[in-house]
Request: fold
Amino acid sequence: MYQYNYLFDFTKNVFLKMGCSEHDSTIIADVFLVAELRGHSSHGMIRIKDYYELWKSRRINTDPQVTIVHESPSTAVVDGDNAVGMVAARRSMEIAIEKAKNAGTGWVATRNSNHFGIAGYYSMMALEHDMVGICLTNANPLVAPTFSISRMMGTNPIAVAIPAMKHPPFVADFATTPVARGKLAVAEKKGKKVPFGFVQDKNGEPSDDPTILKSGGSMLTLGGDRVHGSHKGYCLSAIVDIFSAVFSGANFGPFVPPSVAYLPVLDKKVGEGTGHFFGAMRIDAFQPANEFKSKMDEWIETFRSAKPAKGQERVLIPGDPEREAEVRNMRDGIKLLPAIKDDLVEIAKELGIEFI
Amino acid sequence: MYQYNYLFDFTKNVFLKMGCSEHDSTIIADVFLVAELRGHSSHGMIRIKDYYELWKSRRINTDPQVTIVHESPSTAVVDGDNAVGMVAARRSMEIAIEKAKNAGTGWVATRNSNHFGIAGYYSMMALEHDMVGICLTNANPLVAPTFSISRMMGTNPIAVAIPAMKHPPFVADFATTPVARGKLAVAEKKGKKVPFGFVQDKNGEPSDDPTILKSGGSMLTLGGDRVHGSHKGYCLSAIVDIFSAVFSGANFGPFVPPSVAYLPVLDKKVGEGTGHFFGAMRIDAFQPANEFKSKMDEWIETFRSAKPAKGQERVLIPGDPEREAEVRNMRDGIKLLPAIKDDLVEIAKELGIEFI
Reply:
């Protein structure tokens, strides 16, 4: 088990060594560690190696100028200057929040960025300002549209954070696929099958093989198959892609650059880097803030009092599991798999620092 | 088969007879007929009886004052004055579009409204202004959150319309459940079972019985079960509910009023009427409009060229099936089931008009 502070300081040092500023390294470490604390370890320390390898391949800019390239009272387009995704994303969400202060809402589309960790992090930045936060991002293509066998979309997540008064906020943060990519990797490592409805083979036939992506297979959209509404998952994933890339001028769909260095740079570009989309909405642009938050309390209490199905203990509010994990992991420490520790030890050695 | 014009004029006359203005009756008929043309007959002529019965029970206001009750540069809250939903919704989307002209984006939350037909109609209003349109609404509760047996949410749809240049627009309009409520009714009328994953029984056990809602069952969220991501469908449906009702001050979740007169008025109110949420985003608040639309063309061409799975002819762009139905139904006419025709004949007789 590792303590939060140890992993935070180490992560910050890794990015400092890679040339990131004090300010940027702090942000990056914060996003990595929030992912670990909230139980999304698939977006935590395991990913440091990916960023490190991209940096070694000179495919990511650790000294970026993140700039606004276009704006209106409630909108902006941000160029991330090929920054580590967290740096471009955090600045973009700050701009969305600033816009919202004046215009009631703020909407920022960001291009020329990279993988930014967990989407929920940026949506939650709005909460302390009594705003609702929204974050979308596209990602490298693994997912086939309904009726197709071509990998055209990423797991394109949606995050929405909504403040309440006495209850913790509503925080939804989910991929627009039945499962995250990381779950397939876990099943593969354990030598297990996955349930049907997650992936298909290269011909579009149902499959329970978590390694199928390596032989031309693809992930399915939320809904799984057409009968169960996979076209709705396709719509969602497509909307996330268009908001993230067409609004910003980033690469869309199959042209989103890989977030790992072991995959080659794509031949064709239709924009700049990876795209994100951020929204901030002042709650008092709609209702007096206290009334809004009291109503959210009532909403939360109503849904928490829903009757559990047989064998279930309770009905959850989006954000409950992550918040509970946060308390647990801050108290008990964060567990890293031996393979991840080995990677970090190796990276530390190359950078002249230490990880034990 | 009925011609578009005949059904349009009849529908308009029904609402004129119910006391709606010329302006409002035209809007209402337009929304009903667009639903029929686009193949969403579950939201078309079959529903006229519901509105008529609500009016007879004095549960809907045919002479409303739809007003803005709160606003900021990019937002407004609208009170629908218990109008026929289409009237409150169309006015609200007009306000969103006006806001967007000045602020780049416009966001309107509407309370004290009623069932408004198809969400896609309002999102598509943005297209002619070179804007992206968004529409959400909550609806009377039929759907259980993950792990629950309580009906807490409606089929809460999401509609997003995005303009392109030479290609028709991208128009997604979908319930946040695997199927629409109407599909269960069709299966019931045909005496057929439905696939597992649509509904559960009163204990939360899987069911293939389309009549199960009558015996304490509930519909499931998109994803179907927890393994296949039903919690993501729950998040989506909850977000739609909160945006529609907490932003506006409408009833949320289990307190959304019934859209049919044969269900009683609920005892408890937590707001005013049904709630909707509308968004309009000027594309040139992000990119020069022509560049945005050309990029959408490229997006559409890319996804249209995705390789179809074995046995599939083509990969669809959201909006394709509806647009093709629109051409077909305008040319060949609109088919009404005998039972619907009988209802309309009866309503016509009571109102002193004619339907043949």
